[in-house]
Amino acid sequence: MPKLTKRSVDGFAIRDKGYFEWDSEIKGFGVRVMPSGSKTYQVQYRKGGRTRRASIGRHGNITADQARNRAKEIMGELSKGENPVEEIAQHRRAPTVAALCERFFKDHVQHRCKASTQSEYRRAIDLFINPAIGNFKVVDVERRDVSELHHKMRSKPYQANRVLGVLSKMFNLAEVWGLRPDGSNPCRHVPKYREEKRERYLSQYELQNLGQALTEAERDGSETPYIVAAFRLLVLTGCRLGEIQTLQWSFVTDQGMELPDTKTGARRIPLPKAARAVLAALPRLADNPYVIAGKVKGRYATDLQHPWRRIRERAGLNDVRIHDLRHTYASNAVSSGMPIQMVGRLLGHTQIQTTMRYAHLADDPVRRAAEENADRLSNLVGSGYVTEPGLRVVK
Q1: What domain range includes position 148?
Q2: Residues 336 and 256 in one domain
Q3: Is this prediction's pTM over 0.70?
Q4: d(CA 255, CA 249)
Q5: By percentage, how much of the chain surpasses pLDDT 90?
Q6: Domain Tyr recombinase, which positions (predicted)?
Q7: Does residue 196 lie in a domain region?
Q8: Residue 36 parent element (H or E)
Q9: Exposed, middle or buried, 48 (CB in 10 Å: 0-12/13-18/19+)?
């Protein structure tokens, strides 16, 4: 066994089968010569009754002296009861973030999330997470890596925060699955960007314009009656887009719309007369169970965004989103004096805090009530007030 030096390693012959040459000074330190001609420095030792071996580096990439020094370090750590080689091997076997993304989507998202949420998660993974840190080992991701990704998306704060949320959930599950130590989620303490909540409500004048645009679109045939009905139902019920879009005729009962699966679970939504009139005017297709029938046989209309852009342009409402119809429903309910709790039930909110974004609108009926009450009292009191019997103070 020669001492491993650059000269001796360069001189090792290439054979039909790979073989090892061991160093004469350090036990367990050697070089592996492959039929391809590559020569790799190795360290070999016994641990737990098993022979273990790990690569230190390829000859030419590191020198014999560098490999020898690293071998000494490893042997020293082994003598202290540590196992650096096994740690290296575990790190090499550790999954990447891309692999974690796929496991997260397959084992968690597809079983626990609705189709719309699955689509959002898939988009965050494919467009933002994998391109940035997909090649990183799960165990190597640090807070600064997450913070840098979040910072790069600062021009789109809403999207940046959604991606941060997906990452946080993934790394929580990585801990559950034993891929990271407990409490090591790198998303912790990464501050979210402030999101400007849009509060766009249609005025009575705008609602009239929308109604006229819908009527004209149906009359001239630019939109199908099903598309027009979808937007009318959104205004009259305050439902979420997906709830109307996937509504089936079998869900419509005397009690209302019995939806088996919504964002907040199964729920019953009241159907006022105006909404029932919209449904009654729609032709039912024998081969389609959906109320908002689409172009594909037996399916619902999957694209309402493009029709909405055409309709809102016609109505002069270019800044109005489909979801703003739900806000309009809620704002009208609150402004009319309906209790916040009742509005929350109509909207299908599970937490009162979600409905409280409309609370300030409840000031309008309170002010009106205060004015009406003061007017009635003023008629009784007159223009002054009595301080003592027989003494009248005139303003």
Answers
A1: 97-176
A2: yes
A3: no
A4: 13
A5: 58
A6: 197-371
A7: no
A8: none
A9: exposed
